[in-house]
Amino acid sequence: MALVEPVPGAPAAVADCGAERALVVADYHAGIEAGLRYERGVELRSDADGRRARLCALRDRVSPDRVVVVGDLVHRIGDPGEGERDEVERLLDALAVPLTLVPGNHDGGVADAYDRIEVADAGGLRLGDVGFVHGHTWPDRAVLGAETVCMGHEHPQVRLEDAVGGGRTEKAWLRGRLRLEPFADHFEVAPESLGWGDSELVVFPAFNDRSGGTWINVDGQTFLSPFLPDGLADDAEAYLLDGTRLGAYRRV
Q1: CA-based R_g, the chain, Å
Q2: In this predicted model, which residue has the larger pLDDT, 218 or 10?
Q3: Contacts of 242 by beta carbon, 8 Å cutoff, 6+ apart
Q4: Which end of the chain has the lower number of beta carbons within 10 A, N or C?
């Protein structure tokens, strides 16, 4: 059985971290509605209660020892605003299990704002044979040497079209072999000196339903991470949340 298994029908996975079992999500983006109002002038009613209820339902479903958020727990870059603080405090109260955050590009003020959150180093976190990174920067070598590496940041989505031209966009998982060469170039070492095996990279869909995403099967779309797509094998596959296997993501 794989170390990281998606929860059917949800943008979340269960990770076997050796001594612990973790519920893993990426890109929660608490307070996104306030951000959209400020950034784009879009008025949306807060879905804080809905996000919290969905995550707590997943906790009840899989009974984890902890929750790991693979970056962007909050939406506002810098010091969290009042709305975000309230949403996160309510979430922590409701979860009643430890929450570990691998900080993303939106989480700069989290460590100072919440003393109940275990905040990892910016280069990522390794628990047993599972590594966790957000993906907006180059991760630490030790994290990338894990058997399975989980990342967020991209919010992968696929655009699906039917025979008459109708289409829809759905969240997707990306899973494939981690390619050594781009990381060896970054660290300025020979690939064989990294000492890694055939690590698997799992790119998580965004937990937040309002955060948009990268269309991984549409020409002209570019990845956000500095190590994608080069760091992911060409035969990496895409999956829908319900487990539907779409095949190699480049050919979906």
Answers
A1: 18
A2: 10
A3: 8, 9
A4: N
Q: Which amino acid type is present at position 149?
A: V
- CA–CA separation, 124 vs 133, rounded Å? 5
Cβ–Cβ < 8 Å for 13, 202: yes
CA distance 229 to 223: 7
> For residue 159, which amino acid is it?
R
Domains located in the chain, CATH noted: 4-251 (3.60.21)
Q: Could you read off the pLDDT of 189-229 as tens digits, one per residue?
A: 998 888 888 899 999 999 999 888 888 887 767 899 999 99
**Could you write out the DSSP letters of every residue in 14-29?**
EEE-SS-EEEEE----
Report how far residue 93's alpha carbon sits from residue 36's, in angstroms, rounded to the nearest whole number: 26
- Gap between the Cα atoms of 164 and 52, Å rounded: 38
